[in-house]
Design brief:
CATH class: Mainly Beta
Structural class: mainly beta
Distance between the termini: 36 Å
Number of domains: 1
Number of helices: 3
CATH superfamily: Glycosyl hydrolase domain, family 43
CATH architecture: 5 Propeller
Oligomer: single chain
Number of strands: 22
Bound molecules: beta-D-mannopyranose
Length: 337
């Protein structure tokens, strides 16, 4: 199916690479979909932590309704962060690990942030008693993953700021309150912590009603980038249309995931200083709109600033592959004047 209507355009300051940078066939263990990857520069290379859903394929899914049998979180490294990815032979975390806590179903959508030289992961976490958001430390050699805290349900989409603000760790998050809101209308919030364990002093950052092109939900994507003007921050922004039919493997998929751009106050990042009033990235390329598990989905989990002022945005496309878009920092800031 082609791009859904209304048709929106990615801003021309964004350059998308014409092909995904990582696809399921690259992964050295069973993989149906590889997407929503965090990326960080670490020990002189780029480290990607990606989500892998496995155990079925499009034909089996559509004909005999064979569902995915597991989700893992894997690691890859590259010298330039674009190609030449070298994959660890086994995933870091696997939902079928026989030694895992039986309460836990799976971890997914990893975002990775380096704070004071330490690596931290934020992971969506499905459990038998609801969907939680986990914050974990990843050892410097990328082998050991140690959970630090997990939210109560329902709050799974989190990302950490790359430094303490006012002496506190800060995370962006998107709770999913189903009782008090009509439709989904999930909004973007923030919480603060002295130690990454206890989270509080929560504040609303961005309500869906402030994002003119959507009707469904907004949430965090990548760790914000500190600039002289404020925290450059991406968010995912979702519109839904019940008239949309099959759009990927599932019988219906009514949503479209775009990416928005805003600037948050350096000292109080719950304050939105500026919001670009159109989508920054929308699904347009064939692997974003016509192929893949859930089409018309763009889901960034990483944004990196290079020394030459280029901003890299790593995003999952169609919940099926990992892609890369770039822009100049000054151009992005220019949209927020
Ligand atoms: C969200 C998450 C993401 C996914 C997106 C689109 O709710 O589950 O992992 O990319 O939906 O399917």
């Amino acid at each position: 199916m082609p791009a859904v209507t209304p048709i929106w355009k990615t801003h021309p300051c964004i350059k998308k690479r014409e092909q995904p940078i990582v696809v399921p066939a690259d992964i050295p263990y069973p993989c149906s979909l590889v997407f929503n990857a965090g990326v960080v520069k670490h020990r002189g290379e780029y480290v990607m932590i990606f989500r892998n859903d496995y155990g079925t394929n499009r034909i089996l899914y559509e004909t005999v309704k064979k569902k995915f049998s597991g989700t893992s979180v894997g690691i890859a490294r590259s010298k330039n962060g674009i190609d030449g990815w070298v994959f660890d032979p086994q995933p870091l975390i696997d939902s079928n690990d026989p030694n895992k806590d039986p309460e836990l179903k799976r971890y997914y959508d990893p975002r990775i942030t380096k704070i004071d030289g330490k690596l931290y992961l934020c992971l969506a976490t499905d459990t038998r008693h609801g969907i939680r958001g986990t914050i974990a430390e990843l050892s410097d050699d990328l082998t050991t993953f140690t959970p630090i805290s997990a939210s109560v349900p329902d709050n799974r989409n989190m990302v950490l700021f790359p430094e303490k603000i006012g002496g506190e760790y800060v995370r962006l998050e998107r709770p999913m309150p189903i009782y008090s809101r009509h439709n989904e209308c999930f909004d973007l919030w923030l919480s603060r912590s002295p130690d990454l364990v206890y989270w509080g002093r929560s504040a609303l950052v961005l309500g869906t009603e402030r994002v003119p092109w959507i009707n469904d939900k907004v949430g965090p994507t990548a760790s914000p980038i500190k600039t002289k003007d404020g925290w450059l921050t991406l968010f995912h922004a979702v519109d839904k249309d019940d008239a949309r039919g099959k759009n990927g493997w599932e019988p219906t998929w009514k949503k479209r995931y775009t990416t928005g751009l805003m600037l948050l106050d350096l000292e109080d990042p719950s304050k939105v200083l500026a919001l670009y009033d159109k989508p920054l990235l929308t699904p347009e390329l064939p692997f974003e709109t016509d192929k893949g598990f859930r089409q018309n989905v763009i889901f960034p989990c990483a944004m990196l600033l290079e020394d030459d002022g280029e901003v890299r945005i790593y995003y999952g496309a169609s919940d099926t592959c990992v892609c890369l878009a770039t822009a100049k920092l000054d151009d992005l800031l220019g949209l927020l004047k």
